[in-house]
Write a structure and sequence with these properties.
alpha/beta, Rossmann fold, 5-stranded parallel sheet, 9 helices, globular
Amino acid sequence: MWFTTDERNVLCHQALERWQRSERLRARSAEARQRAELLCRRAGSTIRRSEAVVDRAGAVIGEAETLIQGSGHAAAIEHLADRAISRWRGTPDRVATLEGGYALVASGEAGDLTRMQQSVGMSVGSVFGASDAGTALGLAIAIQPDLAVIDAKMELADGVDMALALPLYAPRTRALVLTDDRLRAAQVRVVGFDTEARHISDAALGAWIAYAAA
């Protein structure tokens, strides 16, 4: 069953609030880290206290960066996510005119992305594609897709990490994560998502959509 327009709007509002809170936490954590580093340089006898400040700042960063923790492309991910959000935020009529459900397809391989978008589009009314983790996350926040197909191979960040952020920013989206790594697949299944091998066939993808949409 696809989300109603009202359900999608509520989910989008909640996700935007979480994203804005995350941005505020990132800004605060950066300030705290700068103060901590300054204390470390000046401290001398109070070095332990300054290190504790660094630890607290790191904890805030960990809370804020659900997706981008450990990524060297944090700023790019945030920028692309913000750009995708701003494109759709404030345009509920545009989204509401689309019928038959919404799907997000994300893959860093252009051929697979195009093929899967076409395949998903045979069953779902509107399909949005993304090749990088930032755009995919921004679309998930702004559009609240009914279904998402996330390839582990993406630009800027691992697709599995992006998928693991969905329960926070798109809590009712059903997701299929494509990965050949058994350990990463187990992580995905823990949060309630389905997994398949990368380069999934169109037939298998259609079967999952029928199951997930039932």
